[in-house]
Structure formats: structure tokens, C-alpha cells
Input
Amino acid sequence: MPSKVPNSPLPSSEPRPATSPWTPDRYRQVDRETYWHPFTQMAEYEPFIIERAEGFYLIDIDGNRYLDAVSSLWCNVHGHRHPKLDQAIRDQLDRVAHSTQLGFSNTTTIQLAKKIVDLAPDGLEHVFFSDSGSTAVEVAMKMAFQYWQQRPEPQPQKTRFIAMGVAYHGDTIGNVSVGGVDLFHKIFKPLLFEAFRIPAPFAYRPPEGVASEDVLQHSLQTAEAILKEHHHEIAALVVEPLIQGAAGMIVHPEGFLKELRALTKKYNVLMICDEVFVGIGRMGTMFACEQEGVVPDLLCLAKGISAGYLPVAATLASTEIYNAFLGTFGELRTFYHGHTFGGNPLGAAVSLANLELIEETQLLESMPTKIERLQEHLAEIKELPHVGDVRQRGFAAGVELVQDKATKEPYPYEEKWGYQVCDEAIRRGVLLRPLGNVVVIVPPLALPLDEIDKIGQTLKAAIQAVTEGKGT
Output
């Protein structure tokens, strides 16, 4: 973590209690020695500790303010401490904070289920709640598997899955099995089941022997070849619609999702759309799949569903799938899966308020202007000598740094060029995080235009400072 230059003092209205034993130094010590952080090399970790937030800014223990340009890992929608969302949680606390949903229910969670179904593409009429994107996808995979075992005309041999190359769908063993990011997943290979792979239609770095303009056709032809030969044993295809986030913001060509859906129908394979990242407005529409007129059999949500407030996830299913689980108690058709906090009333309350706020503020209607403004800044950034590619879909983008623009030669992973650029941006008051050599921009959906300008200008300056050797 870089040494930080204060960009705004901590407001004096909420000072840290003078009698607190938790000084900044103690926080840093305990953070470094005790707290094991996710996706973090702890041997090199330098504490960077957030104490509070205001609107679109996070404030650290030294009083420095940072524009949250990654939406606190791609989930914040309206900014931090939004009065309506805060109040929804306070009001729910006056009723009940948690009650199990295993064989019981809750009024707030029922309302959320109805709201989600009302917003969802036609045909997805049932909602199963869990507590993270990983669990939402795991639930969908297990539902797909069990569906084929007990549908009216069972096909118990359909037990396998097909997924994209360099896919990321979460961190459970099931998720990692359909994932394809070697950096994250290779070490766990002995634990995993094998999935079929469709090469990502990645024009900037196409598969060997494939021209950039042919990636769409190549991916679809490979998908059809696999489905034609193995459809009898494939339960479902799992895909992130429109853009693969953790793979480095790989944008799919127009029509790819629609064609995949046609293939799954042709070969009688279920489609699971993982909208954990792309759903709830991130692509400019409530659901990404609706941009290509696709209705999957199962759809997964998390992250933005609670506006980034609480761990809430949902798996939406068609009635055909739902009906395959119905029967008498003794028939053992039940979906034996659940999480302690799935359908938690506090999470349901803030999620319901979030969806209402999106409608009240006409947030989706405002997205085209914001998407275009971000695109304008990215066009300037793309001209920099060490920017190889800029990829954007909706209100999300990735800027890939390279040693040589002409040859696309990447920087060595261990040199951490993406981290260097993000550290420089943080020094300038904008919080970014990389995926290797790809700097990711995923702002809160409600971010105003002037703050989008700040992100674009800061990122451009940070790239120039680092790649030209002028970093502080």
C-alpha cells in the first residue's frame, strides 16, 4: 500500500473516542498480524484501513478520503450511508434481525421475493435466497443437476457442465470446477470435477490460430461441437452474460449470449446466467440477459442486490425446474440445501429498499449518459503508450497495461504494474484495484458525472506517472 497524502481531513463531527484503546497504530498491528485477508499476499500486505464512509467516499483511519471507484468490490449502487437504505435496516431491527427460513418465512423476505420476480425476465417465477455470489451459482448448479434426476422424464446421465474459458463463478469447489482462471484455481485441480470449455470470444487476445474478427464464430462453433457430442451428459451451461468480470473484463461480441441460448435449447441443456456482477443495473439494464432477449432457466444475483450493504444472494428458477422438486415428504424430492442467513430479514429489507430506490430515482434511465461519459475518458486513456486495450460494457471497464503496444507483450505478473497504477491513483484520492495487469473501473451506479470525470482523469494521470517513471 502506498504512503498516503491526506486529501481531505476527517470531519470533526464524528471523532474517534479519546478513551478508545484502538489507536491507528494498534489497528495496523492487529490487521497485519491477525486478520487474514482474501486474495491478499499477507507477506507483502501494508494495512490500508477504512474507518467510515460518506456518500461515494471511503475515509481511512488517518482521515484521508478516497472516491470508491470499485464500488467496494463491484456491489455499491447508491453510495455509502444512503438515508433510505440506512433507515430500512433500522426499521427492520425494530421488528426482527434474523429468523430461519428453513420451513419458516418472514414478511420482509416475502416482499423481496415478489419484487424480484416482478422485475425479472418473464419465466423466472421462483426465488431461492442464499448469502453470496458463490452460493447463488452453487445453488443453481445443484438445482440443474437434481432437476434432471427427477423431472417427469428423468435423464440421470446429465450430470456435467459446460462453461467459458477463463471463467470465474465464485470460490466453492463447485464454482471453481466450472471456473477457468488458472491463477485462482489451478492449485485445487485434484479436488475438482471436470467441465467442458468454450473458448472466450476475446478479440484482443484470441485463441492461437484464430483471427480477432473470427473469435465469435470460433467460440460458437466450439460450443456447438461440444453440445452436439455431449448434450446427453450435460446438465447446464454456465455463463456470465455480456462481460466476464474477474477474467479481466472480457467483453463478449454482440449476439454471443443469444446464440448460446439458441444452442442450449437446440440440444436440451439448461442455461445458468451468472448475473452476480452484471445484474441490478451494472450493464445499464436491470438484468444483462434482457439486452439480448434471453431468458435463462436459472439466474444468479448477489452484489448489487443489497446495494452493497449486506450479504444477500438469490437464484431465480423457472416453474418447470421448480415443479421437478415438488412431491410428498416421503418422495425425497426436496432441495436439501440452505444457508443459515439465506433470506435474512435485514438483508431483505435493505435489498427491497434498494430496488425501490432504483425505480424512484430513475437510476436506469440515467445510465446511458454515465456510460458514455466513462467511454469518453477511456478513449483518451486508450491512446497512452502502455495501454494495450480498453474494454467496456455498461458501467464497467478494464484497462490492460502492456510493455509493448504493438506486440501486446504483457508486463511480468510479479512486477505488479496494475497494482503500481492503482497505488498511484490511491495517492491521488481514487480507490482502484487491479486484476493483474488490468486496472478495473466499476463505479457506483449513482455516481454523478463530475465524479466520473475525476476517476477518468486520475487513472490517466496515474498510468502516465507509473509507466513514465514519474510516480511519487
